[in-house]
Amino acid sequence: MSFCYCGKLAADRVAWTDANAGRRFKNCVDGSSGCRYFQWVDGPLCSRAQIVIPGLLRNMRGMESKYEQQIVEVQKREARKWRFRVVVVCLFWFVVYVLSGSDKQ
Ligand SMILES: [Zn+2]
């Protein structure tokens, strides 16, 4: 446990910058207090990890973005299918109504 300069229990955080991707650190829980406490928990990343991890993160974010776009496309496709089904059912009942009216004459 460590405490910041204002005496509060320091918050556990994770850096996601390219140079420190996934590296844990502690700082003040109250970001607006002006407390400048900062302490790395993990040692620095090796030069290879500083290249590989940001690349993996970019790939992961790109895949997440594509996945979200695919979800939106599937939702739009489902909405079109439902609109089409509603139109078909309405047309069916309209035809039934028209045909039943023509039988009475
Ligand atoms: Zn503090």
Automatic annotation (TrEMBL):
Superkingdom as given in the UniProt entry: Eukaryota
Presence of keyword Transferase: no
Domain GRF-type positions: 4-44
A GO MF label: zinc ion binding
Transmembrane segments annotated in the record for this chain: 82-100
Matches recorded under Pfam families: Zn_ribbon_GRF
Keywords: Membrane, Metal-binding, Transmembrane, Transmembrane helix, Zinc, Zinc-finger
UniProt-listed PANTHER family: ZINC ION-BINDING PROTEIN
Protein name as annotated: GRF-type domain-containing protein
Lineage summary: Eukaryota, Viridiplantae, Streptophyta, Embryophyta, Tracheophyta
